[in-house]
Amino acid sequence: MRYILRFLWNATRGHRLAPWRSPYLRWRLETYTGLKMSSIGFIEFWSFAWRDRVQLLRFLRWTGKMERYARPKPRNP
User: Fold this and answer.
1) The model scores a pTM over 0.70
2) What integer is the mean pLDDT of 53-64?
């Protein structure tokens, strides 16, 4: 859960209260859906998030898994 929140916090940098304005999230949504996200608004963003919530949660879990591979915890000798 911590990795999911970290990804969302980093992905919405500068647009925390309005994540649909985040250029990074727009780019991610464009690559995921293939639709242009230049004119996405509040309603379109949240309807997409609700409709594809299962896939989005699966993606966020995957990012957490990749984060753990990229930055493993140090082992004590």
Assistant:
1) no
2) 85
